[in-house]
Amino acid sequence: MYRVSSLLIFLLPFALSGCIASNLADKTVLPITTINVAEHSADTTTVYWYSSRQNQPERLGERVYTEKQGYYQSDYQWQSGKLRTLLQRGTKRVDDQLVPFSLQLRFDSQGLAVFQRYKEADHVLPVTMSEIAILKQRSDLLRQRIARLDRKQQHFVQGYWQQQQLMSCATHKPLRVSDPALLASFAPNGYWTVIGKESQGQLTVQQVLSQIHGHSCLYAPKLIELAD
After folding, report:
1. Is the pLDDT of residue 58 over 70?
2. What is the pTM of this model?
3. What is the pLDDT of residues 97-136, one digit of tens each?
4. E strand intervals along the chain
5. What are the two backbone dihedrals, phi and then psi, of residue 27, each rounded to the nearest 5 degrees?
6. Exposed, middle or buried, 54 (CB in 10 Å: 0-12/13-18/19+)?
7. Which of 71, 22, 86, 80 has its CA nearest to residue 52?
8. Closest CA relative to residue 71, chosen from 86, 88, 85
9. What contacts 112, CB < 8 A, 6 or more positions away?
């Protein structure tokens, strides 16, 4: 018994140090990877902000601009790889009129919707199980689409004119562009957005996003914090 007790006393510090090391490893903050891409098709322009950690989804913000159907923004949040919260807010066309709408969905750790609220104009309407399933599936499809846009280097680049210079929203430093006439549709001192690539002060433009009209730099929607 004395030998067993001595052995336990000898091993205890190593066991404790192993637990401490394990706990420290668990608490290590892993880096977040962020992708900011955009696409334009027909009359719709969409901008995405997607963040992940070790290939696990964390957050997805979406801004959608259309010429006829209105504008809306979405905010998705995952925990442990599972969608937990989805909020949307904007306008949509109903009976040939643009009306405001908002959607809130919250899921438990098993993926079941534990809270749902959809409001259109001044009316609170139910959300069916099939509609919830489609919205969950769309979150996966969006992640796949964002990955494709990233591989095609369709990055969202935005900036503004300052003293007849192109300035970057990302760095707030001047940008050089091979063909400044591409951005001539934006008024001097105005805000501009493109699909392209920004690297070392050089801007390469694939497409000008003329549907986005703003006065300041855009950021990912933070609807979840506003709702909380």
Report:
1. yes
2. 0.84
3. 899 999 999 999 999 999 999 999 989 999 999 999 999 9
4. 33-41, 44-53, 56-66, 71-79, 82-94, 97-107, 113-120, 123-125, 155-162, 165-168, 176-177, 191-199, 202-208
5. -90, -5
6. exposed
7. 80
8. 88
9. none
pLDDT tens digits along 138-177: 999 999 999 999 999 999 999 998 888 889 999 999 999 8
Pairing of strands 82-94, 97-107: antiparallel
Q: Six-digit token pair at 182?
A: 């591409």
Spatial separation of the C-alpha atoms in residues 77 and 168, rounded to whole Å: 28
d(CA 193, CA 64): 14
d(CA 145, CA 112): 24
Q: Side chain identity at 211, as an amino acid letter?
A: Q
Token pair 């190593």 is found at 14
Name the residue with tokens 């790889």. 81
Position 38 scores a pLDDT of 98
Q: How many residues does the chain have?
A: 228
